[in-house]
């Protein structure tokens, strides 16, 4: 009888370890590739993509000779600290920021946008904290028109982490897919 209890205890410990391992912070995975998608399907896009691993900083250069634009984006998603309950829950969600750029292509004003009331309640005071907003103000979007208002949407998927950044304005739509290793 004692051996059965020991066996049951060992099985419970193994299951607990496996569950804990399965819910480890997926946002710590390094995204080392991006895929750029624009609304012009026939476009030839050149993407130079660099990642500084220690800061999870994306430095992306995107250009199209046929459509005559060149973007250089620099941003880090490490500053957006999601509550543990969202990382561990089977949660897929999108939220965003409305940004206004200054002449140096950094966001001068940043406003949080949430679309799901539950996510908004869980992240209240977190996604729009001074720390997150000041970090986003360090992002850089060279090539975007500082006179336009931009919506930057970020998509989180359970067990994957950050999967997309979408940038919209009245003049453009740009989807950056963050492809994990």
Radius of gyration over all CA atoms, rounded: 20 Å
Residue windows where pLDDT falls under 50 for at least 5 positions:
23-35, 37-47, 49-55
Question: What series of H and E elements makes up the topology?
Answer: HEEEEHEEHHEEEE
Going by helix content, strand content and strand pairing, the class is: alpha+beta
Average of per-residue pLDDT values: 75
Question: How many individual domains?
Answer: 1
Termini Cα gap: 47 Å
Write out the strand line-up for the largest beta sheet, numbering strands in chain order: 1-10-9-8-5-6
Task: Count the E strands.
Answer: 10
Count every helix, treating DSSP H or I runs of 4 or more residues as helices.
4
Determine the strand fraction and express it as a percent band. 35-45%
Shape: elongated
How much helical structure, as a percent, in the residues? 10-25%
Explain the overall architecture.
It is a single chain. With 181 residues, the protein is α+β, with helices and mostly antiparallel strands. It has one domain. It contains 4 helices and 10 strands, in the order αββββαββααββββ. The strands form 2 sheets. The protein has a 6-stranded antiparallel beta sheet. A 4-stranded antiparallel beta sheet has the order 2-3-4-7, with no helix packed on it. It is elongated and about 75 Å long. Mean pLDDT is 75; it is low at 23-35, 37-47 and 49-55. 22% of the residues lie in helices and 42% in strands.
């Amino acid at each position: 009888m004692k051996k059965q209890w020991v066996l049951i205890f060992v099985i419970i410990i193994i299951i607990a370890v496996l569950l804990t391992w399965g819910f480890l912070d997926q946002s710590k995975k390094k995204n080392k590739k991006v895929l750029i998608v624009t609304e012009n399907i026939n476009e030839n896009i050149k993407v130079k993509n660099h990642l500084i691993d220690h800061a999870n900083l994306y430095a992306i250069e995107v250009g199209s000779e046929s459509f005559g634009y060149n973007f250089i984006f620099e941003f880090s998603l490490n500053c957006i600290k999601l509550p543990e309950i969202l990382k561990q829950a089977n949660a897929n969600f999108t939220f965003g920021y409305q940004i206004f750029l200054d002449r140096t292509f950094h966001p001068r004003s940043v406003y949080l946008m949430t679309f799901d009331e539950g996510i908004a309640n869980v992240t209240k005071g977190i996604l729009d904290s001074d720390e997150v907003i000041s970090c986003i103000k360090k992002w850089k979007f060279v090539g975007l028109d500082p006179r336009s208002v931009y919506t930057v949407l970020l998509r989180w998927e359970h067990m994957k982490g950050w999967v997309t950044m979408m940038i919209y304005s009245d003049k453009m739509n740009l989807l950056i897919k963050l492809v994990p290793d």
